Amino acid sequence: MVSLPSPDWNTGGSRTRCGCIGTEEPGIALAMHVADPRDAERIQALIRGLSMHSRYQRFFVPLHELPPPLLAQFTSADPVATVTLLVETPDHAGTKLIAMAQYVAAPFPERCEIAVVVADGWQRRGIGSRLLRTLKQLACAAGVTRIEADILADNGAMLKLARRLGYSLTRLGGGIVHASLAVEAPCPE
User: Fold this and answer.
1) What integer pLDDT is reported at residue 76 of this predicted model?
2) pLDDT interval class at 92 (50, 70, 90)
3) Are 57 and 158 in contact (CB under 8 A)?
4) What does the alpha-carbon distance between residue 62 and residue 187 come to, in Å, rounded to a whole number?
């Protein structure tokens, strides 16, 4: 598990913390933690708050909220099989989720599939990049050897990010681009 310092404004009780993270803008306080069942309603609020375009870019369907089985998957962590990372920021009511990323290993340890979504107002600030780098660290520590993702061909920002992070891209049919990255030991810091 990635071990980074915990923020002192954590009000949610004991959590698997991944630590404070920075953005491309100095002075913005963000923290990352592994999702658990207490996060279910906050995850739904994040998804409901996304623009239809952002929801479609992430889920490939125009959903308004997560169906219960998918929400249950996102809120149960097994460091080998599935992990969901959440990014939050302090707000007037405590904290607010602004981003989410997952990996699901299938079949373990051969490969895992990743996905990331960042709230519309927080996009293009380095949060997605940080989440993807952290997922790579977690997958490597779990023994996963390949990270993969399917990206909509019109999602230029995600394709650019995947290229920048070293993923190879292959255009598939139906407007999908497959991204793939070999994970080699030693694990990245």
Assistant:
1) 86
2) confident
3) yes
4) 36
To the nearest 5 percent, what fractions of the chain are helix, strand and coil? Answer: 30, 30, 40
Confirm whether 72 is domain-assigned: yes
In a domain, 1, yes or no: no
Q: Give pTM, 2 decimals.
A: 0.83
Query: 115: domain range?
Result: 17-182
- Provide the token pair at 98: 């602004």
Higher local confidence (pLDDT), 173 or 12: 173
Counted residue by residue, the chain has a size of 189
Query: Given CA atoms 73, 6, 120, 172 in this order, what sign does their dihedral have?
Result: negative
Q: How many structural domains comprise the chain?
A: 1
Average pLDDT over every residue of 32-59: 94
Distance CA 98, CA 91 (A): 11
3-state secondary structure 144-167: CCEEEEEEECCCHHHHHHHHHCCC
Q: What is the CATH number of the domain that holds 91?
A: 3.40.630.30
Q: Give the Cα separation of 109 and 137 in Å (integer).
A: 14
Residue 13 pLDDT > 80: no
